Amino acid sequence: MAVTVRIPTPLQRLTNGQAEVQCDGSTVSDLLFDLEKRYPGIKERICDEQGKLRRFVNVFVNEEDIRFMQGDQTAVKAGDEVSIIPAIAGG
Amino acid sequence: MSLSKDQIQRYSRQLILPEVGVKGQETLRRSSVLIVGAGGLGSPAALYLAAAGVGKLGIIDREAVALSNLHRQILYGTEDVGRSKSDAATQRLSRLNPDVEVAAIHGSIQAETVLGFVRGYDLVLDGSDNVATRYLVNDACVLSGTPLVYGGVVGFRGQVMVIRPRQSACFRCVFPEPPAAGEIPSCQEAGVVGSAAGIVGSLMAHEALKALLGIGEGLANRLLVFEGVASRWREVPVRRDPACAVCGDVPTIRQPVAIEHPICVEVQQEGAWPRSR
User: pTM for the whole thing?
Assistant: First the structure.
């Protein structure tokens, strides 16, 4: 059950330069677990030690913020697109 | 207030647009924009807004021009190195368009003063370089009901969003909390491509002009993301969070409050990322 995960530029060095990767899972939490299995070290950049999404990082499923859905328990299915988007403060 | 012969010449290419016209030009002349940060984003934004004939531009920046600024901060030339950015920007913008009144402030945005700055302007454009200022400016704009154009850039990528206070998502709705001190590396000079800053800063000016003129669709409730290595744009719909601390239904922030540890996020090398160690 492949879900497309879009990786922001700073994390692409952990995905061998790929901007999009395929992961499996039925929730966002599962996906992040699978993402970590495939690309070790990436999850700690997205979640804190408690597994909670880091502040300043947003995850969107099909362009809907998971904070407005069921958070990391938001369901995903094959063909969905998940984007990881950090804020940018530089000017 | 009518346009002089020179002004008709100067603005002729935008005057002939039905979306602008003489009425729109006069609207711009009566308008004022506060630009926070005269750096990589503030430079192109200020140049385009001044060139377009926005009547009053406020510019606030605390720094002096450094040689390392010049690859992206196109307001300045080599001869400006060492001068305060507020002075150099005033001179450059006045030369570009003497119609524009430039009110430059050499200093930084503080919790105590931010509302006073913001209240005097029709619109604010935030091109600052640190998280503390971003939250202060957002909160002050929401509290004063001032439209805000947010933009950020680092490396090859950037983001732009328009904030219509209490109507559309604010910066805090999308990014509710700043990172805690220690969650990120110490501040360093960001790696950034000048042209990426130019793209984002120009888009910010574009959104500001449309908002002042009341034309087109703006980037309210739309976070536009530029991935400059792949040269791709992505748009993410965002929305006002009823639980937002500043613009939500039961706000807990009723006046601008300084972030405890002013810190920079993503003002770091491309490739860096917030982390706890």
Answer: 0.90
